[in-house]
Amino acid sequence: MSKTISTAGRMSQPVRVPISALPLPPPTQRLPRNLTPDPETPSPAAWREVLAARPSIQRRARILASEAHFSFVSPCPQPFPFPIPPPADGTQLADADKPKYIENWLAQREALTEVPCAPVPENAGLGDARELKKYVSEKRDDRRELLALSEGCLRDCFPRLDVGDAFDTLGAPALALPAPETNGVPEKSSGEDDAVRQELIDVLSGHAMLMNTDGDPETHWAPWSLRYSGHQFGVWAGQLGDGRAISIISTPHPDDPKLTYELQLKGAGRTPFSRGADGLAVTRSSIREFLCSEAMNALGIPTTRALSLVSLPELPVYRETVVPERAAIVARAAPSFLRIGCFEALAPPQGVFFIGMGQQQEADWDALRRLGEWVARLLGIWDEAEARKDGERKPWAKDLVLEVARRNAKMVAGWQAYGFMHGVINTDNVSVLGLTIDYGPYAFMDVFDPWHICNHTDEEGRYAYKAQPTMIVFALRALLNSLAPLVGYEAHEGHAIPPDWSSSVTAAKLSEWRDKGMQLKEEMERIVEEVSAAEYGKLMHHRLALRKYEKEDETRIISPLLDLLGEHKLDFHGTFRLLATFRPSLVQEGASAELAGYISTILSLTGEPQFLNREKAAGDARDWLQRYAARIESERGEWAGAEGHFDEARAQAARAANPRFVLRQWVLEEIIKKVESDAEGGKRIIRKVLQMACSPFEPWGAEDFEGDESSLDPEVREERRFCSLGERKMLGFQCSCSS
Fold first, then answer.
1. Which residues form a coiled coil (predicted)?
2. Is residue 242 among the annotated active site residues?
3. Tens of pLDDT along 507-540?
């Protein structure tokens, strides 16, 4: 296969290399080199010794030291409680010998045996300069199977990464599957491509680990999991952390060396933050996260990305049924996975009582400063080297709070405009970069209901669709509450917080700075309101193909349309897509029959036809369409170059903003069932649905065809079905947090 890529409008990229040869960022851009590790494993070298001698330290749930930002952890997907058998020779262990026996059993399952890495092309220019080595376990060799791989994530985040013949093994994208076929490894696969693919799968399944503990400590590398705390359903929960997520590598983007992408495995085994859980993920939840991450990106909504989905079919996982489910791992990507909860862990809310797995920790102000400076650099609002040129360092805390607010305001506006419901907007699930993160019981709106709850464990509707912007504000208040003393200090002193700034500060002074910092709350909330309103208005104008913003649009056009959809239970996305074909001439005198037909088509999109008051619904639709038509006509002159083709130009613009394909709950459930019953066929269906999700505005399923559907190609008919509202029984389908 070709080892170079060239994309239109982009310079020719570097030679592609296997995952083990991806370049690492310079030390200044490495999270583990700039934040504080768990004192139990203070460096990659010390951590490796722990893996060999007492690995239980990273599998045992525990409260980390107050200054720690993360803990070094190796991927090790295993059932939990660990199935540690008695000695094979029948020896009865004395109580004093049992701990050593357990540590030895665990150590044998750690990836500590070095194996050769996949070959690197000679023209890659690496020579002997590979930064990472590959390790596997003596005892872990469970079957691992690649279910999906995202071409979009590969292109956007990891253009250097060679995947060998991985795409060929997934089969051609298809919904209408013929008789089962054997995918497997292509007959003409080269040995090199095979090795590259297998290494990719091994690393992304947690079977193999990339590490470096040799030579200069500055160059050492090891995987890690983040420490964070948070409010869950509004209640302070204390330390949480990455209980099943492990970041395995970070690499600079070739187009922008300052931009790095972190690759994280979700479902790769226990960490110190797993509490009583197994650290694993089931296939259904992994499919949901993999597909939705890429679907959200295609809609233009800020999100973490998903690179791969790997099944571990021999690894049982127990969730909501007596029968075990299959494990799977999603490899997801982002410039950072830091959350608001990372700040809360270092400066918890004061005077809050909670029942958790450990004690309430005191604030660690210097650890908070270090984290804040790191995030400020990530956000591009502060550069320590530049700040030092002027002597006293420039403040950053206020700018950090406001920038995180802007980013999350823009993100939630995208959620609202496209009917996305997250389901669990706990403060530990809110990204400091304003990315949609942690896809659990999410849903896209079917029939419009502003108070729809997609998470069936959210009994009070805290995270209902309409409440989402308020919940983002709640999370941002938690961020400000943690950073308030630093914001207040900088406002009072006029420069950035110095190291160890709090060592000699009195409680009274700290309280004074906190009070001063909390004065930022009003400005922060005003920014959230303004940014989210502007972004939401922009997106809704795009969806309605309106080019000018008028202040009355929200009250005269947008809100009344949503009221119409809600009252008559109309398909949210289907109605917007249909409105792309609306022409103002339909409301003109003499076109009543055409208008009646158009309204009838709109009303056919109801999810509850048996309860539809057709007369009232038709009247409401007619009234709104008349206002919409007048609004469209008012900006006819805005469509320069569209003389004589005004309706066509508008329709094209509207279709480019309103998805034909939506990742609905029924679609996801059908994919999950297919994969669970037929993994080989499921791979092809996932690949086709991913293709549709990444190009959601295309006219899938011969959208404009009005003839006999039975005459269509079977694949086109299936595309058409996958673009429909689906069975009525699936409307409003709710998931649990384990989804």
1. none
2. no
3. 899 999 999 999 999 999 999 999 999 999 999 9
